[in-house]
Automatic annotation (TrEMBL):
<dbReference type="InterPro" id="IPR005863">
    <property type="entry name" value="UDP-N-AcMur_synth"/>
</dbReference>
<feature type="domain" description="Mur ligase N-terminal catalytic">
    <location>
        <begin position="28"/>
        <end position="99"/>
    </location>
</feature>
<keyword id="KW-0963">Cytoplasm</keyword>
<dbReference type="InterPro" id="IPR036565">
    <property type="entry name" value="Mur-like_cat_sf"/>
</dbReference>
<keyword id="KW-0133">Cell shape</keyword>
<dbReference type="InterPro" id="IPR000713">
    <property type="entry name" value="Mur_ligase_N"/>
</dbReference>
<dbReference type="GO" id="GO:0005524">
    <property type="term" value="F:ATP binding"/>
</dbReference>
<keyword id="KW-0961">Cell wall biogenesis/degradation</keyword>
<dbReference type="InterPro" id="IPR004101">
    <property type="entry name" value="Mur_ligase_C"/>
</dbReference>
<keyword id="KW-0132">Cell division</keyword>
<dbReference type="InterPro" id="IPR051046">
    <property type="entry name" value="MurCDEF_CellWall_CoF430Synth"/>
</dbReference>
<dbReference type="GO" id="GO:0008766">
    <property type="term" value="F:UDP-N-acetylmuramoylalanyl-D-glutamyl-2,6-diaminopimelate-D-alanyl-D-alanine ligase activity"/>
</dbReference>
<keyword id="KW-0547">Nucleotide-binding</keyword>
<keyword id="KW-0067">ATP-binding</keyword>
<feature type="binding site">
    <location>
        <begin position="113"/>
        <end position="119"/>
    </location>
    <ligand>
        <name>ATP</name>
    </ligand>
</feature>
<protein>
    <recommendedName>
        <fullName>UDP-N-acetylmuramoyl-tripeptide--D-alanyl-D-alanine ligase</fullName>
        <ecNumber>6.3.2.10</ecNumber>
    </recommendedName>
</protein>
<dbReference type="InterPro" id="IPR035911">
    <property type="entry name" value="MurE/MurF_N"/>
</dbReference>
Length: 460
């Protein structure tokens, strides 16, 4: 983590410093924007959000051990803690991260994409861990606040940062690039996510392709070669002089998935890049494809197959993504963090590997797909209709289109629309089957993870 002095922080980002009894050379260590998780000697950065103003928690942060507060509201200068008054707290956080990143002689791998970026981040970080000291993005901290927090968590002896970078609009990655300064980057593909703001999949591709713009000449750009929308616009980046590696299942990829099997909660796969057979404790072919992107970077860093597998053995997924949860007679594939057509189809494919005598698919709305949201929900409904399931439970106003389409193709299945998490949990409990497999998939706004939590609470 960032370790400096109070005065040193001022020298890095400017601002008006009031020591309030503290010493200018007092040590600071680490940064937080959340007063609830302050650690001793932290810098607390007070950010005024839409619902909560972090300035109101300065005293709380001080009591928990913060020694410096970075603020942008003069009314909150307090005698309880040293304060650094800046014009904009968010920009100060970003400037601090940029200055700290520039002080590190380090590999930084940036990852973006409509689907799979978090899983790819976790797989890549695991592949590195047996050989290098690694800092990776925690959870989904991939925006203008989360990215600098990730950079500032790295220590001086970190070898590699694996940094997830999110996109909402054109220019988002271009804004983050000077801060992250990636030496390699991965684009996991283009999907229907963010069509409401970006308008077309080609525009989504252009927004995400910004991740290769600031790579050094000896850098590496790894991208999903099976993506037709990415293929349409990649030639627009011909003037970016970096090594490029395509991965996927098609024959023209430099790293191709050559075999895949799944047994219980373990996947086994081979690639055209090596003779080794790798395994990872997860499910779904899409995870093997995500691993191809990781392997491209790992090979660039000179790791041998044995080192890569030793790292893969340490794989720990981020919660609510392709997470297998066992609760009494239920085996649940919890993939409730987000959803769009591509990730929903991948989850349905992965669900085929979950064993259960009775198979229940729970699908919540996919958000931010305007103006074609109805069409995309029908497409996923058709996809699930051709999979192995006994019952489809729909949740959310748009989810009725899943049922509308699926029931036409597979009319003999059970279809229900439910309007609360409690109703879903009560219904699952009422099922008499001794072995029940459940897929839970929906956009984050649907909060379907609560179904897992409520069901767990019934049995634990």
């Amino acid at each position: 983590m960032l370790i400096h002095t109070i005065q040193g922080i001022q020298e890095m980002i400017g601002g008006s410093l009031q020591l309030n009894g503290a010493a200018a050379d007092q040590r600071v260590a680490g940064v937080s924007t959340d007063s609830r998780i302050i650690e001793q000697d932290n810098i607390y950065i007070a950010i005024a959000g839409e619902r909560v103003d972090g300035h109101t928690y300065i005293d709380s942060a001080s009591k928990q051990g913060a020694v410096l507060a970075i603020i942008d509201n003069e009314a909150f200068v307090t005698s309880s803690i040293a304060t650094l008054l800046v014009e904009d707290s968010v920009k100060a956080l970003q400037d601090l991260a940029k200055a700290y990143r520039e002080s590190l002689d380090i590999q930084v791998i940036g990852i973006t994409g409509s689907n799979g970026k978090t899983s790819t981040k976790d797989i890549l970080a695991a592949g590195l861990m047996a050989t290098y000291k690694v800092t990776k993005t925690l959870g989904n901290q991939n925006n203008e606040i989360g990215v600098p927090i990730t950079l500032l968590r790295a220590s001086k002896d970190t070898d590699v940062i694996v940094c997830e970078m999110g996109v909402e609009n054109v220019g988002d990655i271009a804004f983050l690039n000077p801060m992250v300064q990636p030496t390699m980057s991965i684009l996991t593909g283009v999907g229907a996510a963010h069509l409401a703001t970006l308008g077309s999949k080609e525009n989504v591709a252009r927004a995400k392709l910004e991740i290769m713009d600031d790579l050094p000449n000896d850098g590496l750009f790894v991208y999903y070669g099976d993506d037709p929308f990415l293929a349409k616009v990649i030639d627009e980046k011909q003037d970016v002089p970096v090594e490029r590696i395509r991965y996927g299942e098609q024959d023209d990829n430099q790293i191709q998935l050559t075999s895949f099997t799944q047994k219980d909660d373990m996947i086994y796969f081979t690639t055209s890049a090596t003779n080794a057979t790798f395994h990872i404790q997860t499910i779904g072919k899409h995870q093997a494809i995500n691993a191809l992107a990781a392997i491209a970077c790992l090979k660039k860093l000179g790791l041998r197959d044995q080192q890569i597998q030793a790292g893969f053995d340490m794989y720990e997924p981020t919660g609510m993504r392709n997470e297998v949860v066992k609760i009494d007679r239920f085996t649940i594939l919890n993939d409730s963090y987000k959803s769009n057509p591509e990730s929903a189809q991948a989850a349905i494919d992965a669900f085929a590997g979950i064993e259960g005598a009775y198979r229940v698919v729970i699908l919540g709305d996919m958000l931010d797909l305007e103006p074609d949201e109805k069409m995309y929900h029908k497409q996923v409904g058709a996809y699930v209709a051709n999979s192995s399931f006994d019952e489809l439970i729909a949740y959310g106003p748009l989810s009725k289109y899943y049922i509308e389409q699926a029931s036409k193709i597979a009319p003999n299945k059970v279809y229900q629309h439910m309007d609360s998490h409690d109703a879903i949990v009560d219904y699952l409990e009422s099922l008499e089957n001794h072995s029940i497999a459940v897929l839970i998939k929906g956009s984050r706004g649907m909060q379907l993870d609560k179904v897992v939590d409520k069901l767990r609470g019934k049995y634990e």
